[in-house]
Design brief:
Blueprint (H helix, E strand, L loop, with lengths): L2 H16 L25 H6 L2 H26 L1 H4 L17 H5 L1 H10 L1 E7 L2 E7 L7 H12 L11 H10 L17 H7 L23 H14 L1 H4 L13 H18 L16 H10 L12 H7 L1 E2 L19 E6 L4 E6 L5 E6 L6 E4 L5 E5 L4 E6 L6 E7 L3 E7 L9 E8 L2 E6 L5 E6 L2 E2 L6 E2 L4 E6 L5 E6 L4 E6 L7 E6 L4 E6 L5 E6 L4 E6 L4 E7 L10 E5 L3 E7 L5 E6 L12 E6 L19
Antiparallel strand pairs: 1-2, 3-10, 4-5, 5-6, 7-8, 8-9, 9-10, 11-12, 12-13, 13-14, 15-16, 17-18, 18-19, 19-20, 21-22, 22-23, 23-24, 25-26, 26-27, 27-28
């Protein structure tokens, strides 16, 4: 009989002989010492009939089954990095065979299996600095079986890991047992994936192949495919230039020392920091993973800039302002129409709010991100991820497109002027690539001014080459647009009184600004810096930051919602991305100054209602 099976069998046999009763659950403090597992207690009849030799055979069978199940789980989840013989990869992934790291702290090993690990460690005297993804999506039983296999293979003799040990560490880490149940990527909610990992509209064909002799060999076709994969799966977090955004930088000074095998393992299995397991989820084939791992070791291809000449080439006016109807050409209420994104077909549906009739389906850019009504309510401005802005006249029968323009290669936001005297005079759109915003004529979309957003980060004061434009709202207090610059964490108050001599007020907030909306008075703009777990409050009248509020994890408000709380007065709420938190912030500095701009509390919705964090809003604000 195999030696390791014999040891396990002996452990099981001794425990069965000692007591058929269930042992107490180990505490966190107990985990430093190996804890043995209890085999199924024999019945009284079995106790009478069975001989010690039969007990030994039974224990050996149980131990053999545990090792076989553990080996199967190891091969599914661990073998790519740690290898079939537990030797790891020299200088990249640490060995598990005869590992002093395994023997030093049993609880630590179980915790790492649940939470993952990144950063430097030393194993058998050798330093490693790599990433291990979490296995929290496995059941406690499966983790226990996997670690039991590891703890009793390749010279290790650390005994049995029980489900209870894993459960204790899971509870200590605050991890639910049904983590990301039903999700494609273990540990990542679909809402979070949709936000952070949304594919870009850029393609490999728009960029030049940057194949260098310093990276691993690639054909031009492979490089273009790698570019396409990166823009579809990775650029939303890591940035088009790979300088890092909500994800870490992936520049060649980082990726080349790691090597192809390390990168393949990372892409396959994900990371404890939240990177999806693109390979094991089936999202990417193994050929895709190999191409992407090699692609990341070459310089990032830089997409072309997109300035005024390129914009004017795309600018079209289908119906001139003087040829448009003066009054609605139908009996529907223009103030009660919806613009609904038909994402993958590149269209929006204009729907009557009273009858629910579909009035028209209008061809637009790809995956419209924002539909924004004009101040008058006559026009609907929409922008696709491909940065195509379309202007739809709701007076026409059916509502139809009257102008369009492309303001970049990738974009998310559009807004119209709303200050009295300037209603709908100007339109602004913000791009992800190139990082810039564009001011246009409100009647025709003719481009007037292009402004780059590249600049210094608010915290470290370092230059960022790719700070994307996120939410844009129109001030009701001044002739200004309020523009969120995502990666640098600054908010621009853009005065449009004289676009030729444009004035900006720059407000430092927090990095990774995204969306936001007005309080009930439309004076204060509350906006989420979601990866910083902050809510910034801007006084649009006094043109300054009045608060930077610590929020529960990853606030993601859309426009947010306002209602009256009996204790705190007017409050504004935001949901959280990929979690069940609803943040509640008091917004009345006049009658409730003791509560104003404080997180008055937060609510938790049930796990099955996590979809609330994607789109649901209660009592949405207008404007």
């Amino acid at each position: 009989m195999n030696t390791r099976i014999s040891i396990l069998a002996l452990v099981l046999l001794m425990l069965s002989a000692c007591s058929p009763s269930e042992p107490p659950a180990p505490t966190v403090a107990d985990q430093a010492e190996p804890v043995t597992v209890q085999s199924p207690a024999p019945t009284e009849q079995e106790t009478t009939a069975a001989s010690p030799a039969q007990f030994e055979v039974h224990a050996a069978e149980v131990a053999q089954a545990m090792m076989e199940q553990g080996q199967e789980l190891f091969e599914q989840n661990c073998i790519a990095c740690h290898q079939a013989d537990g030797s790891g990869m020299n200088g990249v992934f640490p060995p598990l065979s005869n590992s002093d790291y395994l023997k030093e702290d049993r609880a630590r090993v179980i915790s790492i299996a649940l939470q993952g690990k990144s950063g430097p460690i030393t194993v058998n005297g050798v330093a490693y600095d790599s990433v291990m993804p979490n296995l929290a999506y496995l059941s406690n039983e499966d983790i226990a079986l996997t670690l039991t296999y590891v703890f009793n293979s390749w010279g290790n003799t650390e005994g049995v890991v029980t489900e209870r040990e894993v459960a204790v560490q899971r509870e200590a880490a605050g991890l639910p047992e049904d983590i990301a149940e039903g999700e494609r990527h273990p540990g990542r909610a679909e809402t979070e994936m949709a936000f952070e990992g949304a594919p870009l509209a850029l393609t490999g064909e728009e960029t030049a192949a940057m194949i260098s002799t310093d990276g691993p060999p690639m054909s031009v076709e492979e490089f273009q495919h790698g570019t396409k994969l990166f823009f579809e799966r990775c650029a939303g977090c890591h940035g088009v230039l790979r300088k890092g955004a909500t994800g870490k930088p992936l520049t060649t000074d980082i990726t080349r020392p790691k090597g192809t095998e390390y990168l393949k393992a990372l892409i396959n299995y994900g990371s404890p920091a939240g990177m999806p397991n693109w390979g094991t989820s089936g999202e990417l084939t193994q050929d895709d993973v190999d191409i992407l791992a090699r692609y990341l070791q070459h310089p990032a291809p830089i997409p072309p800039e997109f300035g005024m000449p390129q914009m004017k080439e795309t600018w079209k006016v289908f119906v001139a302002p003087e040829d448009r109807p003066a009054v609605p050409q139908h009996d529907y209420d223009v103030s009660n129409m919806f613009s609904v994104t038909l994402r993958d077909s590149g269209e929006v549906a204009i729907i009557d709010g009273d009858s629910k009739d579909i009035l028209s389906i209008v061809k637009t850019g790809y995956a419209v991100h924002i539909s924004r009504p004009s101040a008058s309510g006559r026009y609907m401005y929409v922008i696709g991820r491909d940065a195509l802005v379309d202007m739809i006249d709701l007076y026409m029968d059916p509502p139809s497109k009257v102008a369009e323009i492309r303001i970049g290669l990738e974009a998310r936001s559009v807004e119209t002027s709303k200050y009295p005297g300037y209603e709908d005079k100007y339109v602004i759109a913000g791009a992800y690539w190139p990082p810039q915003y564009v001011i246009m004529d409100g009647d025709t979309l003719e481009p007037i001014k292009v402004v780059s957003t590249r600049g210094m980060t608010v915290d470290t004061q370092e230059f960022h080459p790719e700070p994307r434009v996120a939410a844009i709202v129109a001030s009701h207090e001044h002739p200004e647009f309020i523009v969120n610059i995502k990666e640098t964490g600054v908010i621009k108050l853009v005065n449009y009184e004289d676009p030729a001599n444009l004035k900006e007020t720059t407000i430092g907030a927090a990095r990774y600004l995204h969306d936001g909306g007005w309080d009930s008075t439309k004076r204060y703009f509350l906006t989420a810096a979601n990866q910083s777990d902050k809510i910034a409050v801007v006084d649009s009248r006094d043109q300054k930051l009045v608060a930077l509020i610590d929020a529960e994890k990853t606030p993601h408000p859309g426009r947010g919602a306002n209602f009256i709380d009996p204790e705190y007065g007017p409050v504004w709420v935001t949901s959280g991305l990929g979690n069940s938190n609803i943040n509640v912030i008091a917004t009345d500095p006049v009658d409730h100054p003791e509560h104003a701009w404080r997180l008055s509390g937060y609510l938790k919705v049930k796990a099955e209602d996590r979809f609330l964090s994607r789109a649901t809003r209660i009592l949405p604000t207008s404007g």
